[in-house]
Design brief:
The protein is 85% helix and 0% strand. By secondary structure, it is mainly α. Helix 2 (22-43) runs antiparallel to helix 3 (46-72).
Length: 238
């Protein structure tokens, strides 16, 4: 069996790819922060702010996935990265919403003192891990019709999670996402402690979410591409 590339090597590669297009990713991140801030200030509602974040942040994620995949692939891409991201963004938004809900429930259950709740929360963390590649699959994979894009992306992620080496990395990414969420919540709590307004607190959380999105998305994309290449290589061997 061919040895897999170590995860740390792949993580290093993802950050080098981020550096390769740093001006582009910086511009996209700043544009996402500015757009969310302007829209939030326009409606001045926490609910509206969360709704805006649930759309703009996944779009930024899809953009990073598309450009990372373009830089990794040797074959010509079927469409420009920005077009791929926009075309697949609806699926990324839907998947990220499901993952967010699953992760939120997992955090709530595991934080309680009830044993049943802790067990359920642990199972939900496992489910979050199984879904962690779904948005990357929705953006990166070719040859899928729009009607089947969402279910095929979910199945692709879950099927990869059935293999222990993949699932270990998927658990790592799920843990990173939970830490990501905790950092945003901590930033909001600290802003509240400093007596910042609700608007300023949400803007701080929005900016932090956008800043953390490119590195998380880049690592996810590289680990996903490595997983599907390992699967392809395994299938090509007798």
């Amino acid at each position: 069996m061919q040895a897999r590339v170590p995860a740390l090597v792949l993580i290093g590669r993802s950050f080098r790819l981020l550096q390769h297009r740093l001006p582009l990713y910086t511009a996209m991140t700043l544009a996402a922060i500015a757009l969310q801030s302007l829209l939030y200030l326009r409606w001045s509602s926490t609910t509206a702010g969360l709704a805006i974040t649930s759309i703009v942040t996944p779009l930024l994620t899809a953009m990073v996935y598309a450009y990372i995949a373009r830089d990794v692939r040797t074959a010509p891409d079927q469409m420009p990265p920005w077009e791929r991201a926009l075309e697949r963004s609806w699926a990324v938004i839907a998947i990220d919403f499901v993952v967010f809900l699953t992760m939120t429930l997992a955090e709530a259950y595991t934080a309680g003192s009830d044993l049943t709740g802790f067990v359920l929360g642990t199972l939900l963390i496992g489910l979050t891990a199984l879904l962690i590649y779904a948005d990357a699959a929705a953006t990166i994979d070719d040859g899928v019709t729009p009607v089947l894009l969402l279910p095929m992306a979910i199945w692709r992620s879950v099927s990869l999670g059935f293999h222990a080496p993949n699932f270990q990395r998927m658990l790592f990414l799920a843990a990173a996402q939970i830490l990501f969420s905790a950092a945003i919540e901590a930033a909001g709590a600290y802003a509240t402690h400093l007596h910042q307004s609700d608007a300023m607190t949400l803007l701080i959380q929005t900016a932090l979410a956008c800043l953390l999105t490119p590195p998380i998305a880049a690592v996810t994309a590289i680990l996903y591409i490595d997983a599907i290449e390992a699967e392809r290589n395994a299938g090509s061997r007798p």
